[in-house]
Amino acid sequence: MLVWMLRNVMADRGIWSGAALARLMKQKANYSLSAASISALLNGQPRQMKAETLDALCTTLSCTPSELWVYTPPSKTREA
Which residues of the chain have pLDDT under 70? Predict the structure, then answer.
């Protein structure tokens, strides 16, 4: 299972709002997202994402995709 960690990565870097993230994305990556798109990224796990958006997030936050998504293998139940 993939777990979306955007809020944690932002907090580690002292970024506390979607508006601040949008501003930094424009400054550092020259990439713009609508307020609705930023809100969707902050409030839930994305089902899909453009490579350009992922690149802009990584550039802005100085992180890798593996910091934004953490993979946790599903637990296997043993049959008795």
Answer: 77-80
